[in-house]
Amino acid sequence: MLEIGKKLPALKGTTGDGNELKLANLTGQWLVVYFYPKDSTPGCSSEAKDFRDLHAAFCKRPAQIIGVSRDSQKSHANFAAKQELPFPLVSDPDETWCRAYDRSA
Q1: 32-63: per-residue pLDDT in tens?
Q2: C-alpha distance from residue 2 to each of 28, 65, 97 (Å)
Q3: In the chain, at which end, N or C, are there fewer CB atoms within 10 A of the end residue's CB?
Q4: Which of 23, 44, 77, 80 is catalytic?
């Protein structure tokens, strides 16, 4: 489990838009990484919309939001478009991110 102030592991993953996101490229930035079980479910949609609605406030801090679940890149693309999400969703089918953060998203 990661502790506050500890260095993040060198994770990377494919986002819904097909780009590769590398945590190493975000060094020196505040990050909000949230894990959720499944795209397009009521609870996960509500959570994503809350992050969407607060996105501008996070950017002023400045902090970048990253959502992570086991769903496919295509599923993330559809979910992000439907919910108008302005932040990346990382596909984690092999649970690399989940294990690194000790999460069972």
Answers
A1: 999 999 999 999 999 999 999 999 999 999 99
A2: 17, 17, 11
A3: N
A4: 44
